[in-house]
UniProtKB/TrEMBL annotation, chain A:
Residues 40-166 form the Phosphoribosyltransferase domain. This is adenine phosphoribosyltransferase. Its EC number is 2.4.2.7. InterPro entries: Ade_phspho_trans (IPR005764), Adenine_PRTase (IPR050120), PRTase-like (IPR029057), PRTase_dom (IPR000836). Pathway: Purine metabolism; AMP biosynthesis via salvage pathway; AMP from adenine: step 1/1. It comes from the Eukaryota. One of its GO terms (molecular function) is adenine phosphoribosyltransferase activity. One of its GO terms (cellular component) is cytoplasm. HAMAP family: Aden_phosphoribosyltr. Homodimer. It is found in: Cytoplasm. NCBIfam families: apt, PRK02304.1-3, PRK02304.1-5.
From TrEMBL, chain B:
GO terms for cellular component: cytoplasm. Belongs to the purine/pyrimidine phosphoribosyltransferase family. It catalyses: AMP + diphosphate = 5-phospho-alpha-D-ribose 1-diphosphate + adenine. This is adenine phosphoribosyltransferase. Its EC number is 2.4.2.7. Pfam families: Pribosyltran (PF00156).
Length: 183, 192
């Protein structure tokens, strides 16, 4: 994991071959990394989860925060396996009850990520999960939300990294664990 | 059909699940008592109970495909799919899925919405389960059944954590059985 090729677990190549790259989606010039094809292969999906669970099970993680919507697919199985709470980080106005929000930049304009007040407590050790890290903007917003309520973000976990976009450097010094790079 | 009607009467896990769901009055609008499952997700024991009950029910039904409705179906569907060795297929709002998709319209209280599925995800005659957190009108689940049937799958059942009391007994959605763990925990009428 994390691009250290000598240590590469044999399961990683199986996952990589299942990722479908869709050109010009959602717009021209973007090579979209489609993980839904990984989900169609029960072994590849299980291997993805197992790799993260093996890494985090002894790290005393109390919260797994998943970013809407594909972070909702990978986060809960990890949370269940390691006995942590799962907290959804959502687009605006989806969460009922009291929320806090963090703004982040898109290519054009801004968006917001929201989290429930009270879901995460001071002292919680948190993992942030999404399918992919590109610029790191969304993950940075997630880290901010968790830190604002006093949690410690232990690591960010993504299936795929686009290293040329340098998202890794926008994580406020937090480490990133990823399985597959796309250049 | 509710879990209590089908062998789980008195199962303490159902009470734990029900107790873990938070009710938010008047969300997203006045009169609706919103069943918030995020508090269930904060309770790893109760969340695991939900998955265990569904897995026990479906593991010997030869299900090859679990379809989850965006977005809360994405939370409950994958753990079930992983445990029973089935594939997981996300049913999504328009424009989110890349590649070739089929789409199905369904009614909202005001206007319509659309659900999409990847055309290449389903093989003919697969046995499918549809998952969402809650069933109210059944509109979204009916659209999901339509998508899967159009792609050639056989929908075995729809499963939800919470369902309105009207789904007791042999209630079916488009001829398909519905399996629900708990009723909403407050007795006020939910109007949609």
């Amino acid at each position: 994991m994390s691009g250290n090729k000598q240590d590469e677990d044999p399961r990683i190549n199986g996952i990589k071959t299942k990722i479908r790259v869709v050109p010009d989606f959602p717009k021209k010039g973007i090579m979209f990394q489609d993980i839904t094809t990984v989900l169609l292969d029960p072994k590849a999906f299980k291997d993805t989860i197992d790799l993260f669970v093996e890494r985090y099970r002894d790290k005393n993680i109390s919260v797994v925060a998943g970013i809407e919507a594909r972070g909702f697919i990978f986060g809960p199985p990890i949370a269940l396996a390691i006995g942590a709470k799962f907290v959804p980080l959502r687009k605006p106005k989806k969460l009922p009850g009291e929320t806090i929000f963090e703004e982040y930049e898109l290519e054009y304009g801004n968006d917001r990520l929201e989290m429930h007040v009270g879901a995460v407590e001071a002292g919680d050790r948190a993992l942030v999960v999404d399918d992919l890290i590109a610029t790191g903007g969304t993950l940075c917003a997630a880290i901010n939300l968790l830190e604002r309520v006093g949690a410690e973000v232990v690591e960010c976990a993504c299936v795929i990294e686009l290293p040329e976009l340098k998202g890794r450097q926008r994580l406020k010094g937090k480490p990133l664990c990823m399985l597959v790079e796309y250049r | 059909m509710f879990a209590v009607e089908n062998g789980l009467q008195g199962d303490p896990r159902l009470q734990a699940i029900s107790d873990a769901i938070r009710v938010i009055p008047h969300f997203p609008k006045t009169g609706i008592m919103f069943q918030d499952i995020t508090t269930l997700l904060l309770d790893p024991v109760a969340f695991k109970h939900v998955v265990d009950i569904f897995v026990d029910r479906y593991k010997h039904m030869n299900i090859s495909l679990v379809a989850g409705v965006e977005a809360r179906g994405f939370i409950f569907g994958p753990p079930i799919a992983l445990a029973i060795g089935a594939k997981f297929i996300p049913l999504r709002k328009p424009g989110k899925l890349p590649g070739k998709v089929i789409s199905e319209e369904y009614e909202l209280e005001y206007g319509n919405d659309r659900l999409e599925m990847s055309m290449e995800a389903v093989k003919s005659q697969e046995r499918a389960l549809v998952i969402d957190d809650l069933v109210a009108t059944g509109g979204t689940l009916s659209a999901s059944i339509n998508l899967l049937e159009r792609a050639g799958a056989e929908v075995v059942e729809c499963a939800c954590v919470v369902g309105l009391p009207k789904f007791k007994g042999q209630c079916k959605l488009k001829g398909k059985p519905l399996y629900v763990l708990v009723e909403p925990s407050q007795l006020e009428e939910i109007t949609f």
